[in-house]
Design brief:
Helices cover 37% and strands 17% of the residues. By secondary structure, the chain is an alpha/beta fold. Residues 15, 41, 104-105, 144, 226-227, 255, 257, 270-271 line the site of N-carbamoyl-L-aspartate.
Length: 349
């Protein structure tokens, strides 16, 4: 085949940032996504209704085609303002995102510490009223699933006991374990999800392609550094098998997370900017496994189903087999696969 058509993607996890960065990066999502779930770890974070109000205006200026789905950043302060949660929802938030303290970009000083996460069984746990209200409202809980205080490569596996507790304590709360990276998480999600359709997970493009060797195997490559950090070859292989499986509770969340090159090279910021190659590289990946027929389910339909949104009847994306040279930088940001030539080009009007 020399041409592939595909419904526009549902990117269930993307960082669009704000200000100038938003203007630069949003068009890359806009060109290929019908919907996107926008992460709330801006600075300042989207953790009050007021902030979400002004952020919505900024996003509305930057996205012309993609329907934005918002999230709010869960904070302990919200326990004192439970009425905020329905306000977030009225403003277009479909989920709250929980960031354990210190495990990733802009997650310091949240108070959502290891102790808080490991004591959900206590009545007095400050997250409980908040999660109960999310459950009541039908807001999805999106998890950055890494437990603070563990060795970095073990943080995701150690977090799974928190997921267990959450599922047990809140019987109708729907949960997405974001950007999973390990054999353990794949096993956990596939075994649980079979009995419980409240649990889903997202996979990024870059975790299907990278291992820790890309980050530190030879010279240190800050541009391959993200959270959770890419793991061992057997972990990556488990993610690939999951992406290719006929399993309704796994879907695409690119976690495209732009930082200026200077921040990545000097401050070691975590995050990979994959939006400029997302659809091209996904088509390449699924074609390599002779699985293109599965791509619409993985990258569109299952997220619509999980988030209970109707399919949109939009003109398809058209990709043609023509070399696509990924730019070295885009306004000071290095895209995933910079400098590589990819086999598929997105045909744009
Ligand atoms: C994300 C970012 O830069 O905001 N970074 C990352 O490495 N994935 C935050 C996140 O999703 O963890
Ligand atoms: Zn993210």
């Amino acid at each position: 085949v020399d041409e592939v058509t595909l419904p526009p993607l549902f990117d269930a996890h993307v960082h669009l940032r704000d200000g100038r960065m938003l203007e630069i990066v949003a068009p890359y999502t806009d060109r290929c996504c019908s919907r996107c779930v926008i992460m709330p770890n801006t600075q300042p974070p989207l953790d009050t209704p007021l902030r979400l109000v002004s952020y919505r205006q900024a996003v509305a200026h930057s996205l012309t085609r993609t329907q934005p789905l918002y999230t709010f950043k869960i904070s302990l302060e919200q326990t004192q303002h439970l009425n905020w949660l329905s306000q977030f929802q009225s403003l277009g938030a479909i989920a709250g995102k929980l960031y354990p303290e210190g495990v990733t970009t802009n997650s310091a000083h949240t108070g959502i510490s290891r102790d808080v996460l490991l004591s959900l069984d206590r009545q007095t746990n400050p997250l409980r009223p908040l999660l109960a209200e999310m459950e009541r409202l039908g807001l999805v809980l999106c998890l950055h699933g890494e437990l603070p205080g563990e060795f970095c490569l073990d943080r995701e596996s150690a977090f799974l006991e928190v997921v267990d507790e959450l599922l047990a304590l809140f019987p109708s709360l729907r949960i997405v374990l974001e950007h999973i990276t390990t054999v353990d998480a794949v096993r956990y999600v596939t075994s649980h999800a079979a009995k419980d359709d409240r649990l889903a997970c997202t996979l990024t493009l870059h975790h299907l392609l990278l291992t820790l060797d890309h980050v530190v195997g030879d010279a240190l490559d800050p541009h391959s550094f993200c959270k959770p950090v890419a793991k061992a070859p057997e972990d990556r292989e488990a993610l690939v098998r999951l992406a290719l499986a006929d399993f309704s509770q796994v879907f695409l969340g690119s976690d495209s997370a732009p930082h200026l090159c200077s921040s990545k090279e000097h401050q070691g910021c975590a995050g990979i900017f994959s939006a400029p190659v997302l659809v091209e590289r996904l088509v390449q990946f699924f074609e390599e496994y002779d699985a293109l027929a599965l791509l619409p389910d993985f990258a569109v339909r299952r997220a619509e189903h999980f988030y209970r949104l109707p399919s949109l009847d939009l003109p398809p994306l058209v990709l043609v087999r023509r070399p696509f040279l990924v730019p070295e930088t885009i306004q000071g940001i290095r895209p995933f696969g910079a400098g590589e030539t990819l086999p598929w080009t997105l045909h744009q009007e």
